[in-house]
């Protein structure tokens, strides 16, 4: 059976690679990530073995990205950012009394946002924490206490 995403590089090595590339040093990367310099070096070695080519040139006490390393850095940085955003969105699920509304950006902009001030006036405990496509409303009241308000807004009985 084929893997959905094909053969992926060792994901545990990406953070060390990104830090070393950004800082130009395995030592500085290890200090930032609170791991040993040897651990960063092993992470980089694992990536270089996976790709079959060097990602860095070692120059005295620093490292310089190769062309392949610069190319992969863009992808690694973007992917780490996406993973970080996903992790932050999941944090909202752990907050007691939170309600997560999943909606498209257009519905959020055209329907929900124009009604948000009415909703906040009726339920002052609501704290919108938004990013599309998921808008999160953190509330201390039960869901059913705000549901009638949503229904009234939907039918125009605001």
TrEMBL record:
Question: Which organism is this protein's natural source?
Answer: Kiloniella laminariae
Q: Where is the HTH lysR-type domain?
A: 9-66
What Gene3D superfamilies does this protein map onto? Winged helix-like DNA-binding domain superfamily/Winged helix DNA-binding domain
What is the protein name for this chain? LysR family transcriptional regulator
Under the heading InterPro entries, the entry gives: LysR-type_TF_proteobact-type, LysR_HTH_N, WH-like_DNA-bd_sf, WH_DNA-bd_sf
Query: Coiled coil located at which positions?
Result: none
Checking SUPFAM superfamilies in the record gives: Winged helix' DNA-binding domain
Question: From what superkingdom does this record's organism come?
Answer: Bacteria
């Amino acid at each position: 059976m084929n893997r959905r995403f094909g053969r992926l590089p060792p994901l545990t090595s990406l953070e060390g690679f990104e830090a070393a590339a950004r800082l130009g040093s395995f030592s500085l990367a290890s200090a930032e990530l609170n791991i040993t310099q040897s651990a960063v070096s092993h992470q980089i070695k694992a990536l270089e073995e996976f790709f079959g080519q060097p990602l860095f040139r070692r120059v005295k006490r620093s490292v310089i990205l190769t062309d392949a390393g610069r190319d992969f850095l863009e992808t690694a940085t973007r992917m780490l950012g996406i993973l970080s955003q996903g992790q932050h969105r999941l944090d909202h699920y752990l907050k007691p009394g939170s309600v997560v509304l999943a909606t498209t950006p257009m519905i959020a902009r055209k329907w929900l946002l124009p009604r948000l001030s009415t909703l906040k006036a009726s339920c002052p405990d609501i704290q919108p924490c938004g990013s599309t496509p998921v808008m999160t409303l953190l509330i201390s009241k039960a869901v059913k206490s705000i549901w009638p308000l949503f229904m009234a807004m939907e039918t125009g009985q605001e």
